[in-house]
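Why does residue order matter? Because the sequence determines the fold. Keep that principle in mind as you read this record.
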Amino acid sequence: MNQDSSRKLQTATREKLRKLNSLRGGFSQRLPSASALGKIFMAFPLGEPIYQMLELKLAMYVDFPSQMKPGVLVTCADDIELYSISEDESVQFDKPGFTALAHPSPLHVGTTHGVFVLDPHEKSSSSDVETISCLRFLHKPSLNKMRDSGAVCKGQSGLFSVSGEEFVYTDSTYYFDFDTAKSLLNLLKELGPLDCEIDAYGDFLQALGSKATIDYTNNTANVTKEESSLVEIRQKIFHLLKGTPLNVILLNNSKFYHIGTTSEYLFHLTEDVALRAELGLLNSAFSLRETSETPGCCVMCSVLDPSCSVGAGSVVEFSRLGEEASVGSGSIVSGCWVGPGLSVPDGAFMHSLCVNHQDKIRFVTVFFGINDNLKHSVDAPASMDELKLCSVGLSQCLSHWEIKNEALRFSGDASSCNLWNACLFPVCSDQQSSFSVSLKMLQAVLSGSTNPLPKDTKLMSVQECLQSKNLEEMLKLRKVLYTDITQRRFSS
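Structure:
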């Protein structure tokens, strides 16, 4: 290949990566390690080499296309739906308007997902699959809202057979037909480029059903950033879709697993006996050094020295752990190079990203407590102590690093200060030193000690890291891991 052809190939590859990354949804503030490449490319501990969420979704929906008229299928990249139906039944997407899958779920699950209000006169079958019309769709409703709207069912599904046991039908994947797709495209042309966030579930599905009302268009509680045009555009969508049928396919013998938060991710990959058995999840998948002697942990596409240890309930992915290195329990280590002898604390989240900084390739390792709320915001830096990093107020964290409060910078919108846009994380020249520097900062906060940063250390926020990420270099690092694992396995 000549030099000119090589440059063209590199340019084409970058463009493909850019377009591929633009297909994913919003940033994952509840599972930040999935933000750089997108949740659809999250790894799972099975397969050789390991599967991604994309492969799981394709496998789960392999029978759908043959039962589907032309249209659009919408799904989330952070959930898994497993279902069982008899041989004479099928899941069909052949009705006009919208058709959504529905799963029986406990009431508490309904408060964080979409809930269907069904027509009580239609549901009569006890089969695994039943298609009925929906009166209304509720987006993350309260318990009282579910009860008042008639969404709560009792002991009728395959999973809730105990008499009187309450449940709701929650959402996952949905389909809309070609005519509806054309109508939405025409509306987009009329509106022009959007400057606000439109939710594919809340803003579309809440407009459907005979009992749908326009009230939801003014509710911005679940919006990441509210723009002035949001309510007006929502109302136009409502009026366009009002009267469009919403059919619901009740998958009565099904399970819905959501893995979009750090706690859910850790539970389902390390502790959930049911999911591990149903999918055949492994403790160690496509990695060097088996970890079967440490039950309840999960290692994916990583190289671990035989002397290192990974605690129960922890996930390590796309990382290297050196001699005598250790990871505590209930932690996530993603894309990191953990040097010899270093110890990741219990309940820690650590994720290394490759970024472009001042025209150079650099590394930033972000760190949080597993249960930290990265979405919680305050109006001004003066209130930063309301933001908790590992349960410690942010101003106190700064004191451990000998950074003055007034020196802390928040990226993006100055009226919204949170852990996501707080510039706390050092920019380093290589992956290994990046992890080491950030680990010392985290340990200082947890131990109450002092760890001053070197003078003129540049600090970035998670938000800035993602805006300046070098996706090509991050994929190269994964490729190196893949090659290393493959060659060393072959040689042994």
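Confidence is low (pLDDT under 50) at residues 12-25.
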